[in-house]
Specification:
The protein is an alpha/beta fold. The protein has one domain: Spore Coat Polysaccharide Biosynthesis Protein SpsA, Chain A (Alpha-Beta Complex), CATH 3.90.550. The protein contains seven helices and nine strands, in the order βββαβαβαβαββααβα. The chain has helices at 34-45, 58-64, 82-90, 113-122, 148-152, 161-166, 185-190; strands at 7-13, 28-29, 32-33, 50-54, 71-74, 100-105, 128-132, 137-144, 170-174. The strands form two sheets. A seven-stranded mixed β-sheet has the order 5-4-1-6-8-7-9, with helices on both faces. A two-stranded antiparallel sheet has the order 2-3. Strand 2 and strand 3 (32-33) form a beta hairpin. Helix 1 crosses helix 4 (113-122). The radius of gyration is 15 Å and the shape is globular. The mean pLDDT is 88.
């Protein structure tokens, strides 16, 4: 796989935020929505095209993303969980056009474009790059095209962490920003 091919970003924003009780994608953050902020961060990283998987509250989410150069797709089965949304989004990403995919979540508000570029810089020679939160590994993560079939086979609520755990060619990058996500009202208050 050519190292000159771009890295596609798959921004996952399809869920209903059941723990929060309202759609986190639409929460206000730094003068915009959490979702638009995440999408703009992915665009600012300038790794390649940004694909967004929507589901719950699709119309409102599309509206908050208005004007951004994104490739938006809507998972009709978003209620089946994160793994299903990853697999659905991967059906729109061709492994012959991209050397890897960056999996990003819309609820990690302190991730920066610099963080995303650091992951990309660590990729050469590895199948996967994961963020090291200090006590766990997870997204954002970059996974090479060789593993696209595994991403397309994910199902249910389990995301790509299972692939990260099984990977024998994994490198990690410290990313303490990734440890902050938004799942509860307490998390919203801490923003």
């Amino acid at each position: 796989m050519s190292s000159t091919l771009p890295i596609a970003t798959l921004l996952l924003a399809a869920g209903s935020s059941s723990r929060l009780g309202r759609p986190k994608q639409l929460l206000p953050f730094h003068g915009t929505s959490l979702l638009r902020h995440a999408a703009q961060t992915a665009l600012d990283a300038n790794l390649g095209p940004v694909f967004v998987v929507l589901g719950c509250r699709e119309t409102d989410c599309r509206e908050t993303l208005s004007g951004l150069p994104l490739k938006i797709t809507v998972n009709p089965n978003w209620e089946e969980g994160l793994g299903n949304s990853i697999a659905y989004g991967m059906n729109h990403i061709d492994e012959t056009s991209f050397r890897a995919v960056l999996l990003a979540l819309c609820d990690q508000p302190f991730i920066t474009a610099t963080d995303l570029r650091a992951l990309a810089d660590a990729l050469p020679g590895h199948e996967m790059v994961a963020s090291d939160f200090g006590d766990a590994l997870g997204p954002p993560a970059i996974i090479t095209a060789a593993c696209f079939p595994k991403l397309r086979s994910l199902q249910g609520p389990q995301g790509a962490r299972i692939l990260i755990k099984e990977c024998t060619s994994l490198v990690t990058v410290p990313c303490h920003h990734a440890s902050v996500d938004v799942d509860t009202e307490a998390d919203v208050a801490n923003l």
